[in-house]
UniProtKB/TrEMBL annotation:
It comes from the Bacteria. Keywords: DNA-binding, Transcription, Transcription regulation. Residues 2-70 form the HTH gntR-type domain. NCBIfam families: trehalos_R_Bsub. This is Trehalose operon repressor. PANTHER family: HTH-TYPE TRANSCRIPTIONAL REGULATOR TRER, MANNOSYL-D-GLYCERATE TRANSPORT/METABOLISM SYSTEM REPRESSOR MNGR-RELATED. Gene3D superfamilies: Chorismate lyase-like, Winged helix-like DNA-binding domain superfamily/Winged helix DNA-binding domain. Transmembrane segments: none annotated.
Length: 236
C-alpha cells in the first residue's frame, strides 16, 4: 500500500520514544530494514526521510542513520533562541497553543514582578508548548506595547521574535536570566501534564533591545524530565 512507509515510520518512531531503540545507536541498513518489513528499499527511504524530518534520526555519510536523543531538548542558557527555532529541529513533534492574549496595564503587583513602568500597557501572553503528545512547557510573557506594537494572537502562535526582528526591524540584544526549581502552581497543573512530577524548572528572563530598553519579561516553566539546559563555559 502507498502509506506503508508511514506505518514503518510510526513503528520506528514509537520504538525511539520508548527507548526500545536507544539514542546514539545506528538503525539497521536500508537493506536490512526492507527485509525486516518485507517491503522495497524505496519505501524504507521514505520512512527514513520522515524520521529525519521529524528529528528522530541524523543521517551520517558512510555510516547510516544514527538515533537522536529525543527525551530531552537542549535549551541554551546563554543564548536567546525562540521556541520556534528549537521546534524546527523537531519537525511536527512540537506545537504551540496560545491560551491567553490580553491587553493589560501594569499595576502595583505586576510592577513588583516584571519591572516595567507603573501604568505601562503590556501584552500578557500565556502559551503552552506541546511536545510528543504532552504539554511540557508553560511560557508566560509580558511585552511592552510601546516597544512592540501590533502584536496579535496569530503572531504569538508563530514567533514573537520573528515578528520583532523581521516585521518591526528591531534588534534583540541580551537578557538577564535566573533559573530555579519550584513546586508546581495551580496554573502549572492546569496547563501542563504533571502527573507524578513534584517540581518544575523555572527560567525567568528580562530581555532587552539593542539600545538596552527592556521589552519583555518571560517566565518559562518546564517539566523537568523533558528539558536540559546547556551552556559553553571557558576558564579565563
Amino acid at each position: 500500500m502507498n502509506n506503508k512507509f508511514i506505518r514503518i515510520y510510526e513503528d520506528i518512531a514509537a520504538d525511539i520514544r520508548t527507548g526500545k531503540i536507544e539514542a546514539g545507536t545506528l538503525l539497521p541498513s536500508e537493506l536490512d530494514l526492507s527485509e525486516q518489513y518485507q517491503t522495497s528499499r524505496e519505501t524504507i527511504r521514505k520512512a527514513l526521510k520522515m524520521l529525519y524530518e521529524e528529528g528522530y534520526i541524523q543521517k551520517i555519510q558512510g555510516k547510516g542513520s544514527i538515533v537522536l536523543d529525543i527525551r530531552k531538548i537542549d535549551f541554551p542558557i546563554s543564548g536567546l533562541v525562540s521556541f520556534k527555532e528549537l521546534a524546527q529541529k523537531m519537525g511536527h513533534r512540537a506545537k504551540t497553543y496560545v491560551n491567553v492574549f490580553e491587553d493589560r496595564e501594569v499595576d502595583h503587583n505586576l510592577f513588583k514582578q516584571i519591572g516595567f513602568a507603573l501604568n505601562e500597557n503590556v501584552w500578557e501572553i500565556v502559551r503552552v508548548r506541546h511536545v510528543d503528545g504532552e504539554h511540557v512547557i508553560l511560557d508566560k510573557d509580558y511585552i511592552s506595547q510601546k516597544l512592540v506594537p501590533g502584536l496579535s494572537k496569530e503572531i504569538c502562535n508563530n514567533s514573537i521574535y520573528e515578528y520583532i526582528e523581521g516585521e518591526l526591524g528591531l534588534a534583540i540584544s541580551f537578557a538577564k536570566k535566573e533559573i530555579l526549581v519550584e513546586e508546581p502552581t495551580e496554573e502549572d497543573r492546569k496547563w501542563l501534564d504533571l502527573d507524578g512530577f513534584h517540581n518544575v524548572v523555572v527560567v525567568r528572563s528580562q530581555v532587552y533591545l539593542e539600545d538596552a530598553s527592556p521589552f519583555q519579561y518571560t517566565e518559562s516553566r518546564h517539566r523537568p524530565d523533558k528539558f536540559k539546559f546547556v551552556d559553553f563555559a571557558r576558564r579565563r
